[in-house]
């Protein structure tokens, strides 16, 4: 098939077979189940792919988020865990040297404990990069998740 543009003719490739399975941003193979799987199954598969400190950290973050907001909705989007309540609260991503918790509207949230240490230049998102061996300020993270939920609820009423 050929796509025609003014002054150019560009061959268009047909369907392409993918020889290599997908890889995560941290280089781990994407062995996670997809269609028809529950969030819990997808999350467990992701943690299993990360047998080091990152899997444990991601699990701990999930526990803290659910504790902070028992009504949080857990979804699997963009091949990562996503937590929502009246809108997107945060996502959990893993990279080779960091576990990243990205708050969708973090720039609008109060962060008195200064947990945000990444994506600080943007006008919307803010993130927390957690490196191996770092401790989480659980009280501050709980407050931040609750702040994000409250912000979403206020925004949803407008």
Write the layout of secondary structure elements.
Blueprint: E1 2-5, E2 8-11, H1 39-49, H2 53-68, E3 73-77, E4 80-84, E5 88-94, E6 99-103, E7 126-130, H3 138-157
Antiparallel strand pairs: 1-2, 3-4, 4-5, 5-6, 6-7
Helix pairs in contact: 1-2, 2-3
Give an overview of the whole structure:
With 158 residues, the chain is an alpha+beta fold. It has a single domain (31-157), classed as Alpha-Beta Complex (Aspartate Aminotransferase, domain 1). It is built from three helices and seven strands, in the order ββααβββββα. The protein has helices at 39-49, 53-68, 138-157, and strands at residues 2-5, 8-11, 73-77, 80-84, 88-94, 99-103, 126-130. It has a five-stranded antiparallel β-sheet. Strands 1-2 form a two-stranded antiparallel ribbon. Helix 2 packs across helix 3.
Brief overview, please?
This protein is of the alpha+beta class and 158 residues long.
């Amino acid at each position: 098939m050929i796509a025609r543009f003014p002054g150019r003719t560009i061959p268009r490739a047909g369907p392409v077979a993918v020889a290599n399975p997908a890889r995560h941003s941290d280089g781990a193979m994407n062995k996670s189940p997809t269609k028809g799987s529950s969030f819990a199954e997808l999350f467990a598969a992701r943690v299993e792919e990360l047998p080091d400190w990152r899997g444990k950290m991601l699990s701990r973050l999930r526990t803290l988020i659910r504790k902070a907001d028992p009504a949080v909705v857990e979804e699997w989007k963009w091949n990562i865990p996503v937590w929502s309540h009246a809108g997107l609260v945060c996502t959990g991503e893993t990279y080779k040297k960091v576990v990243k918790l990205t708050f969708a509207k973090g720039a609008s949230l109060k962060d008195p404990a200064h947990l945000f240490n990444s994506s600080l230049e943007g006008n919307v998102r803010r993130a927390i990069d957690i490196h191996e061996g770092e401790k989480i300020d659980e009280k501050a993270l709980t407050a931040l998740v609750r702040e994000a939920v409250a912000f979403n609820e206020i925004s949803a009423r407008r």
